[in-house]
Design goal:
7 helices, mainly alpha, globular, 0% strand
Length: 210
């Protein structure tokens, strides 16, 4: 089954095929996966959120640099993470998209992760009632998601555009993996988590046949 299967009405499924390998690897991430663990600690929580703070600021920085799609801004999520953790310090590796299509793929990953938060929201609320939880309480607005996916579907008849969107999504997943790996040099995490819901999981991303 090629990435072109499904035609112009199945762009997200095609992106899922293009990004499946790196996306599946994040299901077993030793830092982010701890958010669903029964023994989650405040330090693990903050370490995971710090990964996401760097990621969201990187994507939003690229959106601003391109001066595109203000209605798809991630600023509210960046602000929520800053409130939970303190001001963002820009020391992360660079994430640079070379096309607007690639940026769209990055925004898809970032906004799509809002749905994945449901997999760990209840666990954090139950295990860590004392920590700031502004970020995990954020939910994507229906209109924003419709706008984003509509832009993607508009590219469906252009295989090269879909490929660039997929590359942007893959770069974004890979960036999360790099940030997570770097965080472990400062806070070792022993072994993979026992629970496997990924932090980054746009709807349909692991179900390309839908």
């Amino acid at each position: 089954m090629s990435a072109r299967t499904g035609g112009h009405q199945n762009v997200r499924a095609r992106i899922a095929l293009l990004t499946r390998e790196i996306h599946d690897a994040l299901h077993h991430d030793a830092v982010l996966g701890r958010l669903t663990a029964p023994d989650l600690t405040p330090q693990c929580y903050r370490t995971a959120l710090a990964v996401l703070q760097k990621f969201y600021h990187a994507i939003e920085g690229e959106r601003r640099r391109a001066d595109r799609w203000p209605d798809l801004s991630l600023q509210s999520l960046c602000a929520a993470l800053d409130e939970d953790l303190g001001p963002h310090v820009g020391t992360a590796p660079a994430l640079v998209f070379d096309s607007e299509d690639a940026l769209l793929g990055g925004l898809y990953v970032a906004h799509g992760a809002s749905f994945g938060r449901a997999s760990f929201r209840a666990n954090i609320m139950a295990r860590l009632p004392q920590v700031s939880q502004r970020f995990i309480g954020q939910r994507i607005e229906k209109g924003v998601w419709q706008r984003l996916t509509g832009l993607m579907e508009d590219c469906g008849s252009n295989d090269q555009a879909v490929e660039r969107i997929g590359q942007g999504a893959e770069m974004s997943f890979a960036h999360v993996a790099v940030l997570s790996s770097q965080s472990r040099t400062h806070f070792p995490v022993s072994g993979p988590p026992s629970c496997g819901h990924p932090m980054i999981d746009p709807p349909g991303a692991s179900r390309p046949s839908e």
